[in-house]
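Milestone 3.1: sequence recovery, worked example.
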């Protein structure tokens, strides 16, 4: 049984990971899901799903606990998995009700959430898990600092699809967006303070445009209204106003959130993916799935080396990692990446992504969780 708030129709890397985790587990086991309202439409057809409205948060936690308890009592799952640290207490109680083993997948922010009450109440449950999966080496470090025994911590990087986009679709996208002669810097993801796009526009984009007026920052993403922490309302407007004030109106363009196919075409059409994520107190980039997705499209990433980003970007092979907050070096790294052809980066990018494709993720996930399930069944 998977218990999580982070599942489609909510958007984000954690949501995508939990969906794939359930899909991969469903290939070998009967699965149950306690998730947010609307999640049944995104779960495997064979899954039994219990849904709870995501807002307000206390209502979700109470409703999810009730539904998980009932499912655990009636279906007796051999293993309960918490999709994040937020629902770890619920997973622990459900596992106790079913006399089952349990695991938790940690993403980083769900360990260091800036609340003493959260840490006081939630950390003991993280320490009790039979298995603690983490999305990066940095998250493993945070888990150890929270008192989780090192022997129970296992790094399991998120995965990616390996799409194929035709040259015709790429050309059509550039033509439709009037991008034929532009150098496209692509930014993908929800707009939050941690993603650093405002600071990038203020401190880095002017350096790039001064050197090459054809540079265009293409942003695909919306304000993060459903995020528990670091959410934004109006950040897009702030970024737009900042660009206008700097005379950079023509150097930035926003596109709305789009489906996977349209997003793949944008990745394929871009020249470099920029990921200026910031190192912020009480917030952390657990992994950086957009950097891995970028590599899967043969597109290099330039990113600040913070949090778990070094697990998602292979410095010199799938892009460049830059010392945090050094925007002049960040700009130079972008220029260095653009000095090479897109094709010269593509082979290493795709080879890196191949090792982290979702089927490989599923193999590693099942290999790690199978002993827990078998141990329970042998009792």
């Amino acid at each position: 049984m998977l218990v999580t708030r982070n599942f489609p129709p909510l958007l984000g890397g954690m949501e995508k990971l939990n969906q794939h985790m359930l899909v991969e587990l469903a290939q070998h086991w009967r699965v149950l899901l306690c998730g947010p309202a609307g999640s049944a439409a995104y779960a495997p057809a064979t899954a039994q799903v219990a849904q709870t409205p995501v807002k307000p948060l206390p209502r979700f936690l109470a409703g999810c606990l009730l539904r998980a308890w009932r499912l655990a009592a009636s279906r007796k799952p051999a293993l309960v998995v918490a999709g994040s640290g937020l629902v770890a207490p619920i997973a622990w109680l459900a596992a106790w009700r079913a006399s089952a083993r349990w695991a938790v997948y940690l993403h980083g922010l769900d360990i260091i959430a800036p609340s003493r009450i959260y840490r006081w109440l939630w950390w003991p449950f993280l320490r009790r898990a039979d298995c603690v999966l983490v999305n990066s080496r940095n998250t493993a470090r945070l888990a150890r600092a929270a008192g989780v025994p090192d022997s129970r911590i296992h790094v399991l990087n998120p995965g990616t699809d390996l799409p194929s986009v035709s040259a015709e679709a790429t050309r059509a996208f550039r033509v439709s967006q009037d991008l034929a002669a532009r150098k496209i810097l692509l930014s993908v993801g929800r707009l939050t303070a941690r993603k650093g796009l405002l600071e990038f526009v203020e401190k880095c984009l002017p350096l790039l445009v001064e050197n090459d007026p054809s540079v265009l920052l293409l942003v695909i993403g919306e304000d993060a209204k459903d995020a528990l922490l670091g959410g934004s309302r109006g950040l897009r407007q702030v970024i737009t106003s900042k660009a206008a004030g700097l005379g950079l109106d023509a150097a930035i363009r926003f596109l709305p959130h789009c489906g996977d196919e349209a997003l793949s075409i944008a990745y394929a059409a871009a020249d470099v993916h920029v990921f200026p994520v910031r190192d912020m107190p009480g917030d952390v980039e657990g992994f950086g799935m957009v950097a891995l997705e970028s590599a899967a499209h043969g597109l290099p990433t330039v990113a600040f080396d913070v949090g778990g980003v070094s697990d998602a970007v292979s410095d010199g092979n799938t892009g460049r990692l830059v010392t945090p907050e050094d925007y002049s070096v960040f700009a130079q790294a972008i220029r260095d990446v653009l000095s090479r052809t897109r094709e010269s980066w593509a082979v290493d990018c795709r080879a890196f992504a191949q090792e982290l494709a979702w089927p490989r993720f599923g193999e590693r996930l099942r290999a790690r969780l199978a002993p827990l399930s078998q141990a329970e069944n042998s009792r």
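The chain has a mean pLDDT of 93. The two ends are 19 Å apart (CA to CA).
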